[in-house]
Every structure is written in structure tokens, then in C-alpha cells.
Write a structure and sequence with these properties.
heterodimer; A: about 375 residues; alpha/beta; Elongation Factor Tu (Ef-tu), domain 3; Rossmann fold; Ubiquitin-like (UB roll); 3 domains; six-stranded antiparallel barrel; six-stranded parallel beta sheet; 11 helices; about 30% strand; globular; B: about 500 residues; FAD/NAD(P)-binding domain; Alpha-Beta Plaits; seven-stranded mixed beta sheet; 20 helices
């Protein structure tokens, strides 16, 4: 048989093979030292996805009786990171030496993104909202995380004919949409249903009316549930009101209290709206049959184990915040998984958590949407 | 041993790091595994959107095989004690390839015989050269196993006796060898479809590397985990911690301590310091030599090494949750390779521009009558970096997704965008964010010239520029890819273990 070779001769091929390592070594030795210290893409990461942003409260605006907007200006840079309408930030506040974090949709910004606006409704027993309403002053400093979130318009998935349904302070993410030129150029039409108790509870009405008056693609329907007026629709945003608009082949984005999602979902099911055309903003679903008692929550960290009280009506994260334990929470609604922890013992209840299938099998939970049904031990491998 | 002292510190819980850490833990060593993120696996992870759980990166795992026909990776994971904790699903075909310009379409089965028959059907008179190719593959496989056994110090006599053909083909590219064995050019083109998995075209990619990969796909069906690569990463990390290994999340290393050209410890971001005589880095050498070690302690040789290595491919991924099954969509394959033509050298050049339309798609059914598709496109230069800014980033992301979906639809003539229920797009920014890799490359270094597999492996002993600092994962000697990273993780752990033994003597 003829000798197998690729190059001039088999012998030389074999020699070439034997020298492969040496040749590589020579090539390395020949190299001129030129190593960039930064890379463009990695620099972009720090602009687009900063690990945290230090902000100053530059303006506080009272929107309605129980709602205020806060204009958050970056302290260490000129601009806030770019974001898509529908995204949120997580605001961390310090009170009595404890840190509490909550997620708020970005309700707007200026063209230069010199601030993000967030809009907070005062909630009964809401630690953060109460703090922001009663104690937050101009020039106060905060740390925010984000922007995060998937309540965003995706031209490949979503229809160019859009329907937004907002309930109460659920209007906030839609304000970013209404301000965004790229979004408004991308779509063919938009109908905004905005439900509130009375005309005095409609946040941003002036701003919305102005945007609508300047853009023929956009239409707004206000629905008041506790006030009858001729120039407003009355009641809740329900099947009848929705059907006045043709919903066929339209994407429907919903943002409001959980009860609104559930009742609207029934309507969508009845009307056979495909899943792909229904998007919800993030929300926390509070499970039924929680235990109205106090349990013990034991947290095994890398260097120590601590035990704090936790109440059956509060998420594990809420108990940790009250118990002065460092939390890793970002989204606060079970979606992002940043607080992912292992359940070592105890019974818990959780709804709507985006836990990976294998994580579920291995008893991982998202404590931000997990409620204790007994004494509970969890493990978080951080210090 | 002091509380803050470890036998070995592994930086990064990616595929290589997890395997390295677990291997040493199993050998009774005190191991600290530091991970900057929140989950194990690095790129081998998953994320959820709506009713879909997407694999972040795995297309298919090769060298796994079945219980009857165990591949190297199966045996490795068995040694690590996790095979009973993961469920692998075999993919019963190798690939389907579609071309946009030349309108060709080929689908290749698993199994040597079937592969050969199908190739003969597509390219008459290809069988003789294909048989020759398989012989070379088999010899290559055995030669690589021998090189492995002898830990880079093979006996030349044994090599010449048992693996002469391997020695002949070893210095050459896929293209050169296939031409030499007179494979018809169409068969060559079909056979090199997988080139993009290794991120280098036929004229640059080493024959040995490509042959060992495709041979493994053909002889032993590739597999995917039932519940994404997170399934494997989780099994590895759970096993590691259950054996007492210490795994710290959110703990990026900010400094590697070096004394007398030898590693002696690490400092993490919160300023805690850990002492160790051994480090296995599952992160890029760029980060290690330019950011983590004090500049005066980095030898010039290491700096030259960095400068001599070209970065591999950057990746663009579109993850789609579809509201139809594969059957409803009329798509029957798991993997679709879509190029403009089958000439890898031409396509490689094309992939130096953004929106080039070449991609690999994987598709599988999901629950409730849905399916999951992942489209991956590669870029071999800074075309993305050059156009992207913070201001246009989200618009560019949109365009990338549009371009890739359109390309798939054009090639297959199937409308998928109407079925999109969930969509996520990953760019080099995304990959840089989670991995820290320079410019967000996903393929480590470019496998080309002397940066190919064999020269790397053969010169590896000379590439430890700081004593007891070893690399595993996509930037290491075995180059990128799941099976490479797993196998390399074990190798580096064993070398570290061997070094520890020497120290005690």
C-alpha cells in the first residue's frame, strides 16, 4: 500500500506533528505584548447593567391624594441606564437600621435620562410606601437596582395593535410606554383602558390626555368604579367594555392589582385570546389559606446560622427585612430568582414563583413569594 | 487547617470549575469554589419566561452516549456520582442543514452505517472516502485516548506503530485531510456542517479536533438533559456541597495573590482573604492576568500568551417559546444548521458582519402543546461591538432577533414568528454580563493554526506561567464546548491532585 501522507512525506508529516507544541511555543514567544485593559462590550455591561445605582431625590410630585412621584437622579454618573418601557427598578430604603427593598415600575424619564421617575401609592401597612410618603425628603440618597423586567414590547411577538389595561397605580409602567417615541412609531394603534375609583384617583390624567391629543394612534378610555360621570365610563374594566373594542389580533398588556388579573383572565379565556397576546406586569399573588401565626425562620448562611421570627402572613423576605437579615431580593415577586434559596426543613406556601423545574425538585424556593406554614429553615450560601 | 485556608480554590462554578471542584472534593481535599453569580453552571444554566424554561447555551452534549455505550462524559459524570440524578434524552439524528443561497437541504442520521448510506444517497461514490474518514476518526479517537493516558508524554515508538495515520493527519486542517483522502467536495461540505460548533472553518480547524467531535456524534447519539443544562450543573453543585465542599455565591475574586511566582491565595470582593497553594481558574486568562494579579507579578510570558491568542466567536441567541408543537409547525428536526452556502470558509468570512443570517436552531416540544426554539448565530470579529452603543442597544437587539427569525423562516419556509409566545435575546453584552469574558465571547479562543487542540495540549506544560495556577473551561487547552469543559475540569483537578501529592513527599 502506498504510504499515507498529507504533505511532502509521511516522515515530515510526523515530524510536523511532533513539533506542534514547540511551534506554538515559538508563536507565543514571538508575540508583541499588546493587551487591552478594557473591552468595549464589557464597558457597555457596566452602563446597561450596573450592579447598583446611587440616586438622589431631585423632585417629589404629589400626583393624587395617596400617590407621589419621585424623580431619581444619578449621583455618580450623568445618565440613568437605557431601559425599555415596562421595566422596573428595585428601591432600597433604610429604616431603623434595617433595609427594605421594593420593586417599582419606571413611570417615565426625560429625553436625556437624567432621572427615572417612580410613582408610589401609599399602601396601608406598606413599610416602604409609607416611608417614601412620610419621611422621604428632597436630596435624600438611595440605592436602586436595575432596570429589570420583561413587561416589554417585543415587535416579533406582539401585535402592532395594542391594548393596555391599567388599574389604579398599575398605570405606572404604561407611562414609560406613552413617553417612548420608538414604541409609538412601532405600533399601529393603542387603546388604553385606565380604571380608578374616581377622577381624583386618576394618576397622570393630564399627561395622558396631552399625549393622546398629540397622537391619533392612541386612544384612552377612563373607567371609574366609584363615581358616575357622563364623560367617563362607569364600573370595572370588564368583558362588556373590552368588547366595545375589537380585541382580535391585538396584544393586551395588563397592569394592576392581582384581583384585576384574575377577573380579566376569565374574560380572556372566554374570548379565546391566545396566551401570546396577554402580558401581565409582575405582581405578587398572595396564596389563600396562610397561617395567621408566628413561626421561627432559621437561616443558614456560610458563616453563621440565625433564627428570627416570621409571620404566616408575610413572605420570608419580609420577615428577614424586619429581622435585620441581609436579603438578596431584586424583583420581590418571584420572577427573577435572585433570592433563590434552599429549603432545608419546614412547610411553605408559594404561588406564581418562577422556579426552575430542577430547582423545585431539589427544594429551592424564591423566598420573596414564599410564606411559612410552620417553622422553616433555609440555606443561603452567602456571607 | 486554618478556617480560611484551602487545599485548592476554584474560581468560577462553570462546567469546568464544577467538575474540578467536585473531583478534588471526592479525593478528600478541602475545596473552596467561588462563584460570582447566583446559580451554578456559568453558561450551563437556564432561565424561565412564562411557561417556558430555556437552556441558556447547550445545543447538544456529545461524548455522553448511553448506559450500554458509555462515552467519556458519561464515565466522568459516573465517577462523580451524578448519573442517577440526571435524565438524558438522546437525539436521534446528527444534523439538518439548509442553505439560503444554494437552496440545499440535507439531514444526516446517527450511526456509521446509516450516515454512510445517507451520504452515498446525497453524494454518489462518496462511500470509499467516507470509510477512509471513519478509519481515521477511529484511529484519532484511540490516539487521543493514548495521549491522555500518557499525560502528554507519549512514547513515539508506540505512536508510530499504533497510530501512524493519526500522526500524519494531526498537523493538518479538516479541509486538507478530506481533500487528500479524495472525498467528493459535496460530501466534504456536508460533513463539515458542524464547523460552527467549534467556531472555525474547514481550512483553519484541526482535523483531529473536528474528527473526534463528529465521530462522537455519529457513533453515539448526542443527548440533551430532560430539564436543561441546569439539571447537570445543579446535580454537580449539590453533590459538591453534600460532600462538604464550600460553594460561595456572589463572591467574585478581585485578586489572586502571588508570591515567588507561585499562587498563595485569593481576595474576594468583600475583602475576605483565603489562602491556598492551588488555584484552578474557570474564568478567562484575560481576566486573571490583566485584572486579578498585580501587574508586577504577571510574567511577560503570560502577557505574550494573551497577545498571541485570538478571541473566539461572539454569540447572538434568540430564545423562543412557541405556542405550537413541532408537528403543528411542520418542523421535525432537533437541530437546523442554516448557512448561505455549505462552504465553511466563505461562511466564516460572512460571519464577520452583523445580521449575517447564518445560525443554528434547536427545537424541542415542551408541555401544553408548546415548543422551545433557540437560534444561535456567531460573529467572528467586533462587528457587534463597533455598532452597538448604550443608546441603540435595545434597538439592535430587536434587529438581531428579526434578522435571525427571518433567516430561519426563509431557509425552512415555515412561519414561526406568529407562534412566538415568549422571546428573549442574548447578545455579547448579555454573555459578558454573566461570564465576564472579554467582549462577551462564548467560544474561548479561536481554534486556528497553533491555537488548535493538539498544539495547545502538547504545549500545555509550558503554559503555566504562575506556578499552581491552572485553567479549565472554554479558554483552556481543550477549547470550548460542554464535553471539553467537563473533561478538562477533571484533568486539571487530577494534575492539581498529583502536584499536591508531590508536595507531601
Amino acid at each position: 500500500m502506498k504510504q499515507f501522507k498529507i504533505g511532502v512525506s509521511q516522515k515530515l508529516d510526523m515530524l510536523k506533528f511532533k513539533n506542534l507544541g514547540q511551534e506554538r511555543e515559538k508563536e507565543i514567544n514571538k508575540a508583541k505584548i499588546e493587551n487591552p485593559t478594557t473591552y468595549r462590550v464589557n464597558e457597555l455591561v457596566s452602563i446597561l447593567h450596573p450592579s447598583k445605582i446611587k440616586v438622589k431625590v431631585a423632585r417629589i410630585e404629589k400626583e393624587t391624594e395617596d400617590t407621589k412621584s419621585f424623580y431619581l437622579q444619578p449621583v455618580d454618573q450623568e445618565k440613568m441606564p437605557p431601559f425599555l418601557p415596562g421595566m422596573y427598578v428595585t428601591l432600597a430604603i433604610k429604616k431603623d437600621g434595617r433595609t427594605f427593598k421594593r420593586a417599582y415600575s419606571i413611570s417615565g424619564c426625560d429625553k436625556n435620562r437624567s432621572y427615572y421617575r417612580i410613582t408610589i401609592k401609599k399602601v396601608e401597612n406598606g413599610i416602604v410606601s409609607k416611608y417614601m410618603h412620610e419621611e422621604c425628603m428632597l436630596n435624600d440618597l438611595f440605592i436602586i437596582l436595575g432596570p429589570f423586567g420583561h413587561f416589554t414590547y417585543q415587535p416579533l411577538r406582539d401585535s402592532k395593535k395594542m391594548v393596555f389595561i391599567a388599574g389604579g397605580s398599575g398605570i405606572t409602567p404604561f407611562m414609560s410606554y406613552l413617553q417612548n417615541d420608538h414604541f409609538k412609531e412601532s405600533i399601529d394603534s393603542l387603546t388604553l383602558f385606565y380604571g380608578a375609583k374616581s377622577e381624583f384617583d386618576l394618576i397622570f390624567k393630564k399627561e395622558i390626555d396631552e399625549i393622546v391629543s398629540r397622537n391619533p394612534k392612541i386612544k384612552v378610555i377612563y373607567v371609574l368604579s366609584e363615581q358616575k360621570r357622563d364623560d367617563y365610563a362607569y364600573g370595572f374594566i370588564d368583558e362588556e367594555k373590552l368588547l366595545k373594542e375589537n380585541l382580535e389580533e391585538k396584544s393586551i398588556f395588563v397592569s394592576g392589582p392581582p384581583a384585576m388579573y384574575f377577573s380579566l383572565n376569565e374574560v380572556f379565556k372566554k374570548l379565546d385570546v391566545p396566551n401570546k397576546f396577554i402580558r401581565h406586569d409582575i405582581f405578587r399573588e398572595i396564596p389563600i389559606d396562610l397561617q395567621n401565626e408566628t413561626f421561627k425562620l432559621t437561616i443558614k448562611m456560610l458563616d453563621k446560622t440565625i433564627t428570627i421570627p416570621c409571620h404566616g402572613n408575610e413572605t420570608l423576605i419580609e420577615s428577614m427585612e424586619k429581622g435585620r437579615v441581609k436579603t438578596l431580593v431584586h424583583c420581590t415577586v418571584g420572577e427573577c430568582g435572585f433570592c433563590r434559596s434552599k429549603l432545608l426543613s419546614g412547610e411553605v406556601k408559594t404561588e406564581n414563583a418562577s422556579v426552575r423545574i430542577k430547582d423545585q425538585e431539589n427544594k429551592y424556593i424564591h423566598p420573596c413569594v414564599t410564606y411559612p406554614l410552620s417553622d422553616v429553615t433555609i440555606e443561603i450560601p452567602i456571607k | 487547617m486554618e478556617n480560611n485556608t484551602y487545599d485548592v480554590v476554584v474560581i468560577g462554578a462553570g462546567n469546568g470549575g464544577l467538575v474540578a471542584a467536585l473531583t478534588l472534593q471526592k479525593k478528600g481535599k478541602k475545596v473552596l469554589l467561588l462563584e460570582k453569580g447566583r446559580v451554578p453552571g456559568g453558561f450551563a444554566s437556564s432561565f424561565k419566561r412564562g411557561r417556558f424554561e430555556f437552556d441558556a447555551s447547550l445545543h447538544e452534549l456529545c461524548e455522553y452516549g448511553t448506559i450500554e455505550n458509555k462515552g467519556e462524559v458519561y464515565e466522568l459524570l459516573e465517577r462523580l456520582g451524578i448519573t442517577d440524578k440526571i435524565t438524558m434524552i438522546p437525539i436521534q439524528e446528527t444534523f439538518s442543514v439548509y442553505t439560503l443561497d444554494t437552496h440545499e437541504e440535507y439531514t444526516m442520521p446517527v450511526g456509521k452505517k446509516a450516515f454512510l448510506a445517507q451520504m452515498e444517497k446525497y453524494v454518489p461514490n462518496s462511500t470509499a472516502s467516507m470509510l477512509r474518514f471513519f478509519d481515521l476518526c477511529e484511529e484519532t479517537k484511540q490516539a487521543l485516548a493514548y495521549l491522555n493516558e500518557t499525560k502528554g508524554h507519549p512514547d513515539t515508538k508506540v505512536l508510530m506503530e499504533k497510530f501512524p495515520n493519526f500522526m500524519v493527519v494531526a498537523p493538518y486542517s479538516v479541509q486538507k485531510v478530506l481533500e487528500k483522502i479524495e472525498m467528493p467536495s459535496k460530501a466534504q461540505e456536508i460533513l463539515t456542517t458542524y464547523w460552527s460548533y467549534l467556531g472555525s472553518p474547514a481550512e483553519n480547524l484541526s482535523f483531529v479536533h473536528y474528527a473526534s467531535m463528529i465521530y462522537s456524534y455519529i457513533t453515539n447519539a448526542p443527548v440533551i438533559p430532560q430539564h436543561t443544562s441546569h439539571e447537570i450543573s445543579l446535580a454537580l453543585s449539590e453533590e459538591f456541597t453534600s460532600l462538604g465542599g464550600k460553594l460561595e455565591y456572589l463572591s467574585p475574586v478581585k485578586e489572586i495573590l502571588v508570591e515567588n511566582e507561585t499562587v498563595c491565595g485569593v481576595v474576594i470582593e468583600d475583602n475576605r482573604r483565603f489562602l491556598t497553594n492551588h488555584i484552578i481558574a474557570n474564568i478567562s486568562p484575560h481576566e486573571v492576568y490583566t485584572k486579578l494579579i498585580a501587574p508586577e507579578k504577571v510574567p511577560d510570558k503570560a502577557k505574550k500568551y494573551l497577545s498571541s491568542q485570538a478571541l473566539g466567536a461572539r454569540g447572538l441567541c434568540v430564545y423562543l417559546g412557541l405556542n405550537k408543537t413541532m408537528e403543528e409547525l411542520g418542523l421535525n428536526h432537533y437541530s437546523y444548521f442554516i448557512y448561505h452556502t455549505l462552504n465553511s470558509n466563505v461562511e466564516y468570512k460572512r460571519m464577520h458582519s452583523l445580521y449575517n443570517g447564518n445560525l443554528v436552531a434547536t427545537l424541542q416540544n415542551n408541555r401544553e402543546g408548546t415548543s422551545i426554539m433557540c437560534l444561535t448565530s456567531l460573529l467572528f470579529n467586533d462587528a457587534f461591538d463597533q455598532v452597538v452603543t448604550a443608546e441603540n442597544y435595545y434597538e439592535i437587539k430587536e434587529k438581531i432577533a428579526e434578522n435571525m427569525v427571518a433567516s430561519f423562516e426563509q431557509a425552512t419556509n415555515v412561519n414561526i414568528h406568529e407562534a412566538i409566545e415568549e422571546i428573549e435575546v442574548a447578545t455579547p453584552v448579555t454573555f459578558a454580563r454573566y461570564s465576564g469574558h472579554p467582549d462577551g465571547v462564548i467560544y474561548g479562543y479561536l481554534a486556528s493554526g497553533y491555537a488548535n487542540l493538539l498544539p495547545r495540549v502538547m504545549n500545555e506544560p509550558n503554559e503555566m506561567y504562575i506556578k499552581n495556577l491552572r485553567f479549565c473551561g472554554g479558554f483552556s487547552s481543550r477549547l470550548s464546548g460542554y464535553s471539553s469543559a467537563y473533561l478538562n475540569g477533571e484533568q486539571e483537578a487530577l494534575k492539581t491532585f498529583g502536584e499536591m501529592k508531590n508536595e507531601t513527599i
